[in-house]
Predict the structure.
Amino acid sequence: MPKPPPNPPSSEITPEAVYADRRRFLKNAALFAATAAGAGAGLVWLTGGLKPGSRATPRAGEPTRTGARARGPYDTGEPQTPFEAVTTYNNFYEFGSNKDDPSRLSGAFRTRPWTVVVEGEVRRPQTFDVDALLAAFPAQDRIYRMRCVEAWSMVIPWRGFPLGDLLRRAEPTSNARYVAFTSILDPKEMPGQRRGYLEWPYVEGLRLDEALHPLTILASGLYGRPLPNQNGAPLRLVVPWKYGFKGIKSIVRIALTREQPPTTWNVAGPDEYGFYANVNPAVDHPRWSQATERRIGEVARRPTLPFNGYADQVAGLYAGMDLARYF
Ligand SMILES: Nc1nc2c(c(=O)[nH]1)N[C@H]1C(S)=C(S)[C@@H](COP(=O)(O)O)O[C@H]1N2
Ligand SMILES: [Mo]
């Protein structure tokens, strides 16, 4: 296998890979600086000390000053990464490998009509129209940390529903041990799929108990709005204690399986990206440290927490496992 592609050519981790992206990176940096200097946001965005009403980002669905939505048991109270950054600093290789490619190149992508198939080791396989699916499983708001394997992180207010609700509806058989997810294959509409960065379609997987965990959601929105295309419309996975690449976007198929399914980044670089991909500051990536991270919008690096800060809820899933081996 050729040397796995960097995931992705990030400026601070693989400087040698950045040459081609230099121009776009500078544009991104300029955008961030502009946002930081923007009306009312000021230093707040740089320090992460956002206050409600102090920035020029959408507020629909966020907790308001009047306390319309109380913080839920699954919400972090940390400052949310501005909408502008969440929707312009993306990894979605189907649209290209630069951070601003997905927002620049996914605008015309059609996410309706859209069907999601649930099949495999289930008693009730089903094909859903995505709007029917979203109507059947009422959305909840979840403010989660997201930690990319490239050592940057964000705080994102998602809207979605627990994956477990859908899986239980499908009635997994006693053979079901894993869940395999598949993104859409559409090289005509997705320029990145006409290039060989990765094998397409993008695929991911979870162990069934991980998939059933209440923190694991299928998201259809963020910041109280429908999910922007660049963030994985119309439906994407969010598993907040794992590296971001587990959060597969634009899902068309969910299959319950007996065997551990292949996953895109693990196939591309088995020594660099594991199947489990639990956020773990003690297990470095072969080419960089995972001990700290850069929270987008902040200057100082912060320590990376085991399981991305969700250890109380999820560490039990891995009792007795060697997490350096099953990374
Ligand atoms: N189909 C697909 N899903 C994907 C990716 C991708 O390239 N293709 N990138 C992953 C990576 S590496 C990360 S960090 C997150 C980024 O999600 P965001 O752009 O919404 O922040 O999406 C993940 N899901
Ligand atoms: Mo990532």
